[in-house]
Design goal:
mainly alpha; two-stranded antiparallel sheet; two-stranded antiparallel ribbon; 7% strand; rod-shaped
């Protein structure tokens, strides 16, 4: 109320409560609507980002499963340059390096197999050549193992000692040495082994 004493008036204004608070009510409704829209937008953004992340995780799981089965050519498509794209690119780089390593190992294994075959053939030829030299030598060639068993016996040894190769291989050296020479032989072998 407003008091105007010069005229003896008092002005009283009366406003309905709903009319007085209408603006505040409209503002409240606007804030609630705006908040609801904001919540909906945030939820949609969270759903989109979580779907992107879960899709990538599913692709990574699929990729690791396929790589474990030997499919090293599997790649994950990355359409972004953020952390998700970085993860996908790192995964692809890892699979490429695994594939390169696997190819190198396979090449090495194949080359190794070829080298082993070539070396085996070389050893076989060398052995045949050595056996041929031993067999055709004009001197008796006899080889014994550490346990004094004969393991090499050529044709000239057969002529000199009178034993065939089949009869003497695996027999003791004492079969062909006179008993008085056995101790000399053992002493000389011991001296040789001690001095080299």
């Amino acid at each position: 109320s407003i008091d105007i004493p010069e005229y003896g008036w008092v002005i009283i204004a009366e406003v309905d409560k709903s009319e007085a608070f209408a603006t505040v009510l409209k503002l409240g409704i606007f804030i609630i609507c705006l908040g609801s829209v904001n919540i909906i937008v945030v939820v949609i953004i969270v759903i989109i980002f979580s779907r992107r992340i879960t899709d990538l995780i599913q692709k990574l799981v699929e990729g690791t499963t396929r790589i474990a089965k030997g499919e090293l050519g599997f790649k994950i498509t990355a359409n972004s340059s953020d952390e998700i794209g970085f993860l996908a690119n790192s995964f692809n780089r890892m699979t490429r390096q695994l594939e390169e390593s696997k190819n190198l190992i396979e090449d090495y294994a194949q080359n190794l197999e070829i080298k082993v075959k070539a070396k085996t053939e070389e050893i076989k030829k060398s052995k045949e050549y050595t056996e041929s030299l031993i067999e055709t030598a004009q001197d008796a060639i006899i080889s014994i193992e550490e346990n004094e068993l004969i393991n090499v016996w050529n044709k000239t040894a057969e002529k000199i000692f009178g034993y065939s190769k089949d009869e003497i291989i695996g027999k003791s050296i004492s079969t062909i040495l006179n008993k008085k020479y056995i101790s000399e032989y053992r002493d000389e072998i011991k001296q040789f082994l001690d001095t080299g």
